[in-house]
Amino acid sequence: MYQSDWSRSPGSSSSSASKPVRRPGPRRLAPWESLATSLLLGLGLALRLDRLDRRVKDPAELEAIFGRPLLGTVRESRALSAETENPERLPPEDAEAFRMLRANLRYFNVDRDNRS
Taking the CB of residue 80, how many other CB atoms lie within 10 A of it? Predict the structure, then answer.
């Protein structure tokens, strides 16, 4: 009656082992797949943000937008802030920018009369 139980060795099992069932769910990416995906997503995001940025970054871009020549540029300066008591006392590079702008405005269209 229990003869079959006695014929087995002490460490064996009565049924053969089956493969473990794989749980459904997302598969894990290999490290190189993760790296490639991250790089592509980062590049796509950077390009998208660059296209959405509406700031003017180049004087030539400003000329193209308005269809007019650019007469001069004045850089940002602490000397031009609202707290400046005497705007006549500017650093030489700031004063030169304003002198160039004034000269370009004066001689830009010499065929027209200057009116104020």
Answer: 15
